Amino acid sequence: MTVELTYQESGHGTPLVLLHAFPLSSAMWATQHWLLADTCRLITPDQRGWGDSPLGDEEPSMDVLVDDLALLLDDLELDRVVLGGASMGGYVAMHFLRRYPERVRGLVLANTKATADNDKAAANRIGIAHALEHTHSAEPLIENVFTNLLGETTRSAKPAVADAVKAAIRAAPPEAAAWAEYAMASRADSLDVLRAADVPALVIAGEEDALITDRDVEAMASALPDAKVVEIPHAGHMTAIEDPTAFDGAVRTLLARV
Questions:
Q1: I need a labelling partner for 171 at 20 to 30 A (CA). Which of 68, 163, 177, 221 fits?
Q2: Residue 171, Cα to own-chain centre: how many angstroms?
Q3: Which parts of the sequence belong to the AB hydrolase-1 domain (predicted)?
Q4: pLDDT by residue (tens digit) across 201-244?
Q5: Does the model's pTM come out above 0.85?
Q6: Where are the domains of the chain?
C-alpha cells in the first residue's frame, strides 16, 4: 500500500523533483529551494518514514518507494517531471525510470551509482539496519555512515556544515533508516535502465566522495545516451549541501537542456 508523502514546494516553471539522500530528510534541499526558485518548480518529498511521511508496514523495497512517488505525482497532476536524487534518492530515481520512463523528461543523478550492492556492501547495510533496530537510536548511523558523507575540505574548512549534517543524522528515525538500508541492500542493477534513457541527464560527482568511485561515475555516464558529468571540487558525498552554488549551477544547465 502506498503512503501519502509530505513534500516542500517552491518556484514556478519546469517541475523538478529532487529525492533526498540517506540518512537525511528533504530538509537537505533547503538551499535549493532558495537558489532554484527562479528557475523551476522544485518539489522535494520526504520518502516514507522521513520528515512527516508515514513509514507504513510494507516490506522494504525500491518498488514501494517508486509507488509512493508515482502517487505523489498523480496527486500533483504532473505527467512528466525532471527527476533527480542524491545517493539513495538516485537509486529511487533510477528505479522510477525503469517503471515509468514516460514520466521522466530529464534526469539528475548526484553522488550515486547504478550498480547493485555486492555481497559485502549488502551485508554491511543489513548489519547497520540490525543495529538501528536493536538500539532504537540513530547512533549506529553516526558510527558507521557519517564519517564518509562529507569531504575532507568540508570537515576541516566548514565545521558548521559538518555539525549541521551530524545533527540531522542524529535526528533520523531509526525504524525508517533500517527500512531504507534493507531496501537499498536488495536493489537491482540499473545500468540497463540508463542505457534506455532517452532524456537529457546530468551526473554530479564530488571530488572527495569516499563512497562513489570514478568507475561508478564513468559507468553511469557511459550508459546514458545523453549525459553530462559535473565534478564539484572540494566536496564529498553531499555536494548539494557542501557546495550548493556549484550544485545548483549544474542543475540549471540541465534544465536549460530539457
A1: 68
A2: 18
A3: 15-244
A4: 999 999 999 999 999 999 999 999 999 999 999 999 999 999 99
A5: yes
A6: 7-115+188-257
